[in-house]
Amino acid sequence: MASSTASVRETLFSLQDPAYQAFQSKLCPGVDNIIGVRMPALRPLARKLARESGLLYFQEGPEDYYEELLLKAMVLGYAKGSLADKLPHIAAFVPKITNWAVCDCFCGALKVTQEDPEAMLAFLRPYLSAPEEFSVRFAAVMLLEFYIDAAHISTTLSLLAAVTHPGYYAKMAVAWALSICYVKFPAETLPLLQEGQLDPFTHNKTIQKICESFRVAPQDKAMLRTLRRPLLSLKRK
C-alpha cells in the first residue's frame, strides 16, 4: 500500500489545476490542504482504486490532503461490499468530515443505502442530534439523497424538523433537504412552514431555496415569501 499511496499522491499532483485550487479554497473556508483536482478527474481515480484495492484502500490510504479524503469517501461508496460490511467504515469516516464538500461527496457515493434503506435510516438517526456540526449535516444530506420519497416523506420531515444544532452548515443542510421535500411533496411539507416548526434561520433558508427552484410555480413562491420570519444573522465559523 505504501508504493500505491505514493503513486496516488503523485497522480493527484499531476492533475492539479491552480485556478481550481484557488476557487475551491474560497468555497471551503478553513481548509488549507487542497491540491486543486476537479471532481471529473477524481471520480475515475476513485473507481480504479475501488476495483484494485477495495476497502483496503479506504482503511489504509492516506488522508493528508483534501482530495485524499475525498478519494476515500468515494472509494467506500464504489467498493464492493454489503451495507453491513460498510457501516463500520462509514461510522469511522463521519468524524473525519470537517467541511461541506467532503460531507456531500461522501453522501452521494453511498448508493449502498438502497440495499437496505431501513437499516441505514436506523444508523442515521443518532447523527441528527449529534454535537458535531458535520455529523448532523451528514445525516441531513443522507436524508436528502435517499429518503425524499413517498415511503419516507413523513419520517424525513419529522426528523429534519427536530434538528436543533446551531451550526451554519447543519442548518443549511436541513434547509436544502426541506426545500427538496417541498419541491417533491409540497402538500406534505407546507404545514411545517405554516406552523413555524423550524428556527427562523432554517425556516427562511428553506423558503429561499424553494423560491430558487424552477419547479415551483410563481404564485406558490409569492405565498411562501409571506411566511418569512425576522431573524438574526448566522455567520459561518
TrEMBL record:
<protein>
    <submittedName>
        <fullName>DNA alkylation repair protein</fullName>
    </submittedName>
</protein>
<dbReference type="Pfam" id="PF08713">
    <property type="entry name" value="DNA_alkylation"/>
</dbReference>
<dbReference type="InterPro" id="IPR014825">
    <property type="entry name" value="DNA_alkylation"/>
</dbReference>
<dbReference type="InterPro" id="IPR016024">
    <property type="entry name" value="ARM-type_fold"/>
</dbReference>
